[in-house]
Every structure is written in C-alpha cells, then in structure tokens.
Amino acid sequence: MRQALITGASRGLGLALAKALAADGWSLLLTARGEEDLMSAAFDLGARAIPGDVADPAHVARLAEAVPELDLLVNNASGLGPAPLPRLADYPLDSLRALFETNVVGPLALIQATLPALRKRQGAIVNISSDAAVEAYEGWGGYGATKAALDQVSNVLAAEEPDVAVWWVDPGEMRTRMLADAVGEEEAGTAPPPESVAPALLRLVAGRPAPGRFTRGDLR
C-alpha cells in the first residue's frame, strides 16, 4: 500500500489532503502540534498519528523511524510569525529565526531523515509554498522569506535527487486559521476552502510531472 507522511495534518490543507489521500487508498502517518485535533483526525481516517513539532529533532527522528518505506512526504506544517504582520523594519529577529526553524529547517530535517525511505520507493516530496515567496506584499516579508528559502531548498533538492520527485506548490489563499490570523476573519472567510485544493494535489502526485514550482492554476 502507498504510504504518505503529512505534516500540519490536524486542520486546513494538511487535513484536507489527508482525507483525499485516504479516500484514494493511501496509508497515512499524520503529524501536527495540536494533539487533540490530530488524534481525532487520525481516528476518523484510520491513520497513524505522532503529535509533535517538526522543529524538534527528536520528533523528526520518531517520524522517520515510523516510515521505513515512504512514497510521499508532504511538508505542509508552517508558522505565520508575529501577528499582526510586522513590517521588516520592525520585525523581531528572534521571531524570524524561530520561523525559519519551523518553515525551512524543520522541513529539510524531515526530508534528510526520510530520504532513504523515499529513495527506496522512488517516492515524491511536496513542499507547500506561497505566493508570498515571490511577491512583495507589505507585512509578509518574514513569512515570505521563509517560503522563498523553502522554494530554493526544493529546487536544489530536485537537482540532487533525480530518483525522488520534488514539487513546491503555491496553493493560493485558502480559508484557514493562518490566513484569518494574518488578514482577519472577514477577509479570510471569502477565500476558497482547503478542500478545493486537495484534488489538484492528488493529480500532481498521480501525474508525476517534472520537478518544479506549481500554483493552483497550474494544476487544474
């Protein structure tokens, strides 16, 4: 059975993708910081779950040990940073360092730990990016910088690991708690739900195109 590991799987896009993969017959290992929501989601989907923080090396090691063979890694877990979103001139540097740990170092650590399992199955990696990685939105400098770094990590990884498919995906705005924290409940409420993006990600994995950066529009 195909095995997927999804981070940030207790809500939002991670949960929507977990539901879609489970319906498609995948075996799932889910992780997120929110233990109660994570265990509830795992129970509903018949999935395994290991709660924890991807920025914690011990947690990364536990996840890798749990998937000696792996077909798909989805690095979806992400932090927003301080809210309301500060301008770069005022950005707390300790917060920025912590955000890089969560959004860049943590995903790379998990990639490093699971690469042997992914190579064994000629698996795939999906790193969830953002348009803030490539656009200059006021207030999004810290978060955008981490996603730009994750994009380049993905780009180089794709060149270094020809037997593992690597895609970095900008799913666009979605009706999530993170977006609400950034722009407010009212504006976030007008965005499409994460469930609208999950089918496109499944098509990406099934079609196995060449490595690269994809937006939701590319995957229609």
Automatic annotation (TrEMBL):
<dbReference type="InterPro" id="IPR002347">
    <property type="entry name" value="SDR_fam"/>
</dbReference>
<comment type="similarity">
    <text>Belongs to the short-chain dehydrogenases/reductases (SDR) family.</text>
</comment>
<dbReference type="Pfam" id="PF00106">
    <property type="entry name" value="adh_short"/>
</dbReference>
<protein>
    <submittedName>
        <fullName>SDR family oxidoreductase</fullName>
    </submittedName>
</protein>
<dbReference type="InterPro" id="IPR036291">
    <property type="entry name" value="NAD(P)-bd_dom_sf"/>
</dbReference>
<dbReference type="GO" id="GO:0016020">
    <property type="term" value="C:membrane"/>
</dbReference>
<keyword id="KW-0560">Oxidoreductase</keyword>
<dbReference type="InterPro" id="IPR020904">
    <property type="entry name" value="Sc_DH/Rdtase_CS"/>
</dbReference>
<dbReference type="GO" id="GO:0016491">
    <property type="term" value="F:oxidoreductase activity"/>
</dbReference>
